[in-house]
Amino acid sequence: SLYFEQLNCNELILAFQGLDLDSVHISLNSKDPEKDIRSLISYIDSSQAKPTDIKGNFKLNSDISMADQLMMDKEFSKDLPCWCFISISTHNEGTDLVNEVKIIDEQFKLLFELIKKHGHCPGRITLYTNISSNFFFEIAKLRAIRKIWAHLSKDHKNAPDLIVHTSDNTQIKLKDNPYNNLISNTLEAMSAIIGG
Q1: How high is the pLDDT of residue 105?
Q2: pTM
Q3: H-state helical runs in the chain
Q4: For residue 159, what is the DSSP state?
């Protein structure tokens, strides 16, 4: 898995050289996704790569609405069938767990309303969320998110797959305490794994 942040697609294409793209998943933090999508498509057209070789997702900034993301998926999913164009992020919300789950629930409901309105269902969406060292609460949060998704999905014939991407909480890490950081990262990773 490769994660690129604020990297333009031409630089990304240079990074692809020599890689077996069939076995790589790319996460791209994009400020101008349409430009980056067109660059990826032109890379596929100019190289020996097949559209199914490029697997990945965009982490889009909050300025891009869910409706715009859905329209990008509708427009470009045929050219990049293994790419996820829709992302929901709660990284910078700064809220407690209950409100975070509430925000995610509202975003999920908005997504399903837009799917119904536009008549287009994406293949997958990506949810980005932080995990803290509050072990049992984080497990409960992730399980609640999965249950909400399952409940909303059963009412729709073709629901997209949900990919949950978690990040550790760097705010509580201290440079002078590497062993504490190791234990904290382990707790966060385990809560993400157990929570699903």
Answers
A1: 94
A2: 0.82
A3: 9-16, 33-46, 66-76, 97-118, 135-153, 178-195
A4: P
